[in-house]
Every structure is written in structure tokens, then in C-alpha cells.
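Protocol step 6 of 9: fold each sequence in the batch and record its C-alpha cells directly after the sequence line. For illustration, a two-sequence batch is reproduced in full.

Sequence one:
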Amino acid sequence: MIARLDLARAAAALVAGEVVAIPTDTVYGLAASLDRPEAVARIFALKSRPPTTALPVLVDDPVRAGELGVTWDARAAALADAFWPGALTIVVPAPDDVASRVGGRGALGLRQPDDVTARALLARTGPLATTSANEHGEPPCTSAEEVDAVFAIRDGLAGILDDGPRRATVSTVVVLDVDGWRVARVGAVSPAALAGVLDRY
């Protein structure tokens, strides 16, 4: 059984460069500090994720998103104002040296989760590279018990911040670039709701 961590121990483990399974408003995720490249690399190995499939980044506040060196324009700010905290990942242009920290190139996906525990953790750790806790291509884990079932026999996961079952509605992913916008994945936020905000720009 994977160790259960409280908020303080989970934050300390992440800051120290460990990978921790954390609850979000959607599913459980594998998380690593954005400042710990070795831990970010361990996430890819743990879930057998292709190294060219970039990880999204969770932030505790929209202001933090704009501090990461990305292009945070009026469209991104309007989406964050309308749907954050919530199940919307906003992909924006980013320099390669920023995007490469999570396996990306030219763009970074950002989200503020609508979950008190997740945001309390992020306030202690800073931005976290995070992806759903599952074997790549398999359904995401929605409870600590499911995380145990998938990862207990694998090395590299320091523990689980258990905060009960999640609701399993994935985030919508919207991509903003110089050519406009597109929905890369449909989830909790509908394309029509996005259009209601972005059609002003």
C-alpha cells in the first residue's frame, strides 16, 4: 500500500523533488514541482507517457500563470476570469525553455483547480506539473484506492494525498495561438461556453 500523506508532508515531499498523487477537482493526478526536472521526468516513467506529450501545470492563482513566462493575453485572462477555478486547461504560447520543463515545445497548458485541498497544496509548493494518475491511455484514477491498484507495484511514487473520491469529469483543453483558438479536448466546459467568451476577441 502506498503511504498516505497529509497536506504538510505532501507539500514537503513535492518541494524535495518527489512525485505525489494528489486530488484535484476532476481526478487524482501525479504531481511534481515545476522546479524539479528529475521529478517531472519520473512522472513520464511512472505512467509510461510518451516524452513528447507535454504535462499541464496547475497553479493556485491566475496571477501565477502570468508569472511563468508564457504569453498570457486578454483572451487567456478572460477565460481564467470566467472559468477558473475550474475544469478548463488553457494552453498558451510559451518559450521553448519554459515549455520544455514539462516535455512541451512552444506552448504550456495551465489550470487552476476548483478544489480547496489542491489549491492549499499549490499555495505551499508553487506550480505543479500534473497529469492524471493512470497508465497512459487508461481511465484516470478517481480515488486513492485506485491509485494504489495501479501504482503500488511501481517505484517512484512517494505517497498519496487522500481527500476522498473525485467526480471524474475531465477538464476541457482550449488552445490559444496567433491564429485564434481551438478545443483540443472536450470536458466539463462546453465549446459553446468558450465561444461566449472568446468571440469578443
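Sequence two, same batch, same settings:
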Amino acid sequence: MAQLLQVHPDNPQQRLLRLAVDALQKGQVLAVPTDSSYALVCHLDDKTAVDHLRRIRGVDERHHLTLLCHDLAELALYARVDNRQFRILKLGTPGPFTFVLEATKEVPRRVSHPQRKTIGLRVPDHKTVLDLLELHAAPLLATTLILPKDKEPLNDAEYIRSRLQHQLGAVIDAGPCPLLPTTVIDLTPMGHGDEPLVVRSGRGDLGRLGLA
């Protein structure tokens, strides 16, 4: 049975977030709120947890997973970033954008795209998940919580728990999330002198990045 951890949206209780960190370290998958929609998250280095996350989401190894990072400095440890790419990252973090970049050796090969060796990365603008990342002291592997056959992401903690109570370690409840997933932007073409590619339009406003 998944735990329901109800935290204050502006001042999340550290005691409850530590319970979430304990669950992550035990290899469990969690549902957490973000500034776009709820996400499924797990420990980056736990293969069993990553496989379980993919099964819940109904995706294979070709689906881009995302690293949730605490800040831009941490993001840069896991992606190869040139000056042009960095300027866009700086404009879009924190915020509801996922950036596809070439992964560094810090990213396990099994979680990067098998052909392209790329990974999605983002810094969410959400107090609860940022505090969780700080306590966890490492990025979390994540994917938008859209279940197989669903068309929209989930955003209600109790409903998520009722549907996935035997598949998750915990659900963090900090109030409802937006229903829109992130805007996904592939920055890898910039490494060859081309323009960024918008893979998915979501909550993030492209005008903020100068790409509208």
C-alpha cells in the first residue's frame, strides 16, 4: 500500500520528505508533484526501480526519461552543454521545460536513449520536489505520470494512490498540479549549428526562451 505523504505546499515538512527519501533508497517508485503535472520518480542508479517505473508508465527504453535536478549547476554535470545551449537553459530553469541534451558519463547508459545517447533534463519550479531533491542529494529519474491509455497526466494525489496503491512506495500530496506536461525542447541540433527542436508543446512558454 502506497503511503500518502501530505505536505504543506509552501513549507513541506522535512520529516515527511525524509520518509520519501527512505522509500527511494529502498528502490521504490514515487509519485511527486511538479510545476507541470505529477511525475513518477525513482533512484537513478537502481535498475530494478527504473524498470518498474517504465512498466507503470508503459514505455520502453526508447522513450526519453528525464533527470530532475535541483539546480542548473547539477544539471550541467549530467549533460554536455555549449555556450548557446547554456543560455537557453539559464532562461528556462527553474521552470516547466524539459531539455534533451547529450548525456555525460555520469548518466547510466541504460537510462539514456539507446541510439542517440541523450537524456531529458529539467529543474522544476516547485518547492516540494526541490526540497526532496536537496534531501536526496542527487537527481531523480522521472517521467510524466500519464498512465497507459490515458490522454492526460494525473494531478490528484488521492486518485493516484487509489489507482497505483500496489505499485508505488508513496505519493506526495502538496495540492493539485497543473494538467499540462512540460514543454520538451531538443537542444542537441544546436551542437551542429542548427536551431532547437520543439518536441512537445506543454506548459512552458517558448517566448520565455526567445523561441516563440
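Proceed to step 7 once all outputs are recorded. Observation for sequence two: DSSP finds six helices and eleven strands in the chain.
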